[in-house]
Amino acid sequence: MVNFSVLPSVVLVRVLAVLILLTLRLSAAAQAPAWQSAQTVAVAIAAAPGGSSAVQATAVDAAGNVYLAGYFTNTVVLGTTTLTSLGSYDIFVAKFSPISNQFVWAQRAGGTGGDLAFALAVSGTSVYIAGNIHSPTVNFGSTTIASPGSTSSGFVAKLEEAGNTGNFIWGQPIGSTNDVTVKTLAASGTSVYVAGGFAGTTASFGAITLTNFDTSGSYSEDGFVAKLTDAGSTSSFVWAQQVGGVRSDRANALAVSGGSVYVGGGFDSLTASFGAITLNNTPSSVALFGDVFVAKLLDAGSTSSFVWAKRAGGLGGKALPHWR
């Protein structure tokens, strides 16, 4: 669970550095590319006195437009647009044009609690964001979702990008009896993939339920990977897969290529399960520090299965950021 008391209360200014590549020429296949020229654009994202803002994710569309997502308190100024938070932390998502050097549009989402966006992906004119919510209910434009978790829930939401405007279309919660967070997001066509971790007895993805590997009652984090299908004005979860063991395990990264879904993260458990595949921590008798993993799933449409999983690590701690 995020401890909001330790987050900064002073004004934070985030600077987006956008590098626009004007011309790229390849002189030969075996030679390095020759950069012709480049332009740097600095844009300030300023929070009002007593507030703060943070950019957590960026993405670029086919036309070179840049999208940003994160969270803020009080108010945040993105170009000529000022957003005001409803709760302690609200979510923002914005579009920036490197042609005009201006923000084109910006939207906020949130409720009366602390709500955070950690991930962003763009597929065509669809913009997807994901993260976690602490408010009982959260507004994504005219769409309101209720948090099904007792402390924090995960979410994924869609905006439709229409040039000069961007509007929320739908939002989906991911619930648990304890904390759940979506840390990463990927999109391919109408398929949307999310990954993260949950610390409750179960985690719910629509009608799909995953049960924590830890049955001791402490319910350490398990990792997850899930797929939604975007049907335009609605969406639905298609499948969800669990990773980990009886200690803290999490998924932090996603990449998609065709029907192959690659997930990376870390596991503190002595053994971690990826479907029928098992990885052993190092050292297996102690496991004081976590190992890292990368695994591949095959997305068969309505189902998925792990194809392989690999670990890396040694006797010391690995440079793996915690998923919250």
From TrEMBL:
Protein name, entry field: SBBP repeat-containing protein
